[in-house]
Design goal:
Strand content: 15-25%
Structural class: alpha/beta
Radius of gyration: 25 Å
Number of domains: 2
Helix content: 40-55%
CATH superfamily of the largest domain: Periplasmic binding protein-like II
Number of helices: 19
Largest sheet: 11 strands, mixed
CATH topology of the largest domain: D-Maltodextrin-Binding Protein, domain 2
CATH architecture of the largest domain: 3-Layer(aba) Sandwich
Amino acid sequence: MSKKMRVLSLVGLLMLSLVMSAAAMAAPKTLKVTAEAWYFNKYEMEEAARRFQEDHPDVDFEWSKAGDFEVAPLMLAWSRDRYIADLVIVASPSEAVAFQARDLLLSFDDVLVGEYAKENWLKGFLDQCTIGGQVYALPSDAEVMTLIGRRDFAEEAGLTDDEGNIIMPKDFDELYSFLEQLTIKDSSGKTTRYGMTVNWSPEYTHYVYFSGLQAMRGSIFDENGALDFSSDEALELLTFWQKGVEEGLISTSSLVDHSGPRNDMKSGLAAILWEDHARVIEIGQVVGQDKMQIVKIPGADVNGTVSYTMSLMIPKNAAHPELAKAFVLEQFNAEWFAHDLMDRWGKLLGLKSNIESRLDDPIWETVFELADNSVGLPKTVDHAKMVDIMTAEIHNMLKMQQTPSQTLANIRQQIQPLNLEPIE
């Protein structure tokens, strides 16, 4: 080959290389996002993607839906290095521990700086997402456990103050008295309106139980540092529940339908709900927001309550982890996104600033106080097994098949083989 031909050939190869490089740079990057199906109904995910694309025009999105609490299939896929998604919105941080233990997650620590620095997040929620000192998930669908009351029903029963606010019961004895005054029965003795409805579904039993303990005694742990299933307060709480059910003051709709308690409130079948704070907005949109109020669990104003959060996770084999982190911070934690969730569904994210800008609203002021004084359940290897045991035993008690003391004894016996050592 002549010298001239060699030069032309090299020039051609160089130009081809430049064209291919330019094409590669121009090619869109596809950010794969998977979430439990209900997220797509409540979260403005596609709007968040559209706004992200304005600043990142080379990014496309691919969505996929996971089943509720579908953790095991994801873990199996990731452990086999199958690329499923760049961002996953599924599972509680307690379940994220299992992913992290297998070295399947990326940490968010490198991007938690400046306006996103750790001190700018609600501590109770971020602590739940922290494993071994590093943040391996970010809060999503964050909630605090509390009581929610109907002002109009409380006013009928003479349980409001001069400003029309529900009086806060000072202890569980006074709360029980409130339930007696709020409950309505017909001439045959059948309850037509319950004083309270409690969410004892498998998703909530452990949260309502431990939120009661935290409010009553300032800790969810016993004197040995184990989760408390033996204290006087634990027995008092279960006795309060069983007695209320037996006397027709507390609805058991949640034993057959996890949406039963919120439906009780929407239909006027109950005056007080024990669940997460978000229901105050959801129910208020049906019955009127002016009729709704957060009522702290007795003792929670001093001792706090329990909070929980779902989580955003990035698998280690993600194709575009930095884009996923940018999307989470720039849009999923943007003020517009957070306020849309708060206004429509009552749900929180993790950044303090998004709720601090709403403190002129009494509901959000109270929620902020609770969130800032809340604790999460410890992350443990056998968390899910413990929840199953608690749910089954407490349900048996509510069906009058065993006493509160027997229920606690059964739980203690069955959790003995479990690994419930907190993972820091």
